[in-house]
Amino acid sequence: MEEIDRAIVAALTVDGRLSYTDLAEKVGLSVSAVHQRVRRLEQRGVVKGYAARVSFESLDLPLTAFVAIRPFDPSQPDDAPERLAHLPEIDSCYSVAGEDFYLLLVRVAGPADLERVLQEIRTSANVTTRTTVVLSTPYEHRPPKVAQPADQLRQRGVPAESPGS
Amino acid sequence: MEEIDRAIVAALTVDGRLSYTDLAEKVGLSVSAVHQRVRRLEQRGVVKGYAARVSFESLDLPLTAFVAIRPFDPSQPDDAPERLAHLPEIDSCYSVAGEDFYLLLVRVAGPADLERVLQEIRTSANVTTRTTVVLSTPYEHRPPKVAQPADQLRQRGVPAESPGS
DNA sequence: CGTGAAAATTCTTAATG
DNA sequence: CATTAAGAATTTTCACG
């Protein structure tokens, strides 16, 4: 992927509601050009969507935990992800190398809720669980490094003046 | 938090770029009322921001791994998160209960890059690492369950007709 | 707090080089 | 592909209940 596209993606990762006007200024293109590029990035699947970042504490989900799971009977078909998908407390499901089969990220209201969810995980997927409770989150979902800060592109052949109508 | 706010948050979690027009229709309020509520949710910190959801494969970061870290010398002050913050490959940092001190989520270009990042983690924070490679991600960042589907609010005292201008 | 409407921006498309 | 221009839609603010 090329430089300007990376800058666009970087900017949208930091602020997914940036207007095309601001985006255009950041990357040094016209509004239409940026709009076209964003549309192409979206339909190519580079940008998969937009989401509000919310405080889970405010949503009464203050307890986060990682749950490593392992099938009780390794000879049976492994369809744990589908069988667990109905549990809304599961934020993410990663298939991993190592001793465990999957690593789940779950968010719940508290210890009692965690206990209930663990039981549901075990019975739904016929697995054993090993749980690691999160005590705090110094940082999460940081924007990936995608080329340079995207600010140095602005001064590359484009006058900062707006022509006006 | 009350019912309508939860519905708003739920909708924005699924689509962070929903227009206030659509949002207003979903929760059965006027555009202005919804706009006010979103602003309050933002400044109360319930909505912390908006971000584009991107494909890490497209960004040349196809390899994800969890890195559990433990201080080499537990008697020294534990400031690993700050000392690791400069590494852009670290997506998230969780302080955890259990045998390890922190669990890091890292995204890199490949095995060689992972090796480099692990070395940087060890030397930057004076820790030992135990790494779990992610093979695939069945699902990630699913929207949390926040009250009912937010569709049943619409038909609660509000005619679906648009009054027009 | 909610509503309705008006003004300022922005989004979106189309024509053009 | 990028640019400019123009109509449609949205965001944002305001006065009022």
Order of helices and strands of chain A: HHHEEHEEHE
**How many domains is the backbone of chain A divided into?**
2
What is the CATH superfamily label of the largest domain in chain A? Answer: Lrp/AsnC effector binding domain/regulation of amino acid metabolism (RAM) domain
What average pLDDT do the residues of chain A reach? 89
The gist of it:
Chain A is of the alpha+beta class and 165 residues long. Helix content of chain A is 32%, strand content 27%.
What does this molecule look like?
Chains A, B: This is Lrp/AsnC family transcriptional regulator. Chains A, B: One of its GO terms (biological process) is response to amino acid. The structure is a homodimer of 165-residue chains. Chain A has 165 residues and is α+β, with helices and mostly antiparallel strands. Chain A has 2 domains: 3-51, Arc Repressor Mutant, subunit A (Orthogonal Bundle), CATH 1.10.10.10; 63-133, Alpha-Beta Plaits, CATH 3.30.70. Chain A contains 5 helices and 5 strands; from the N terminus they run H-H-H-E-E-H-E-E-H-E. Chain A starts with a helix and ends in a 26-residue tail after the last strand. The interface between A and B is large, with 61 and 61 residues. Chain A binds a DNA duplex (17 and 17 nucleotides) through helix 3.
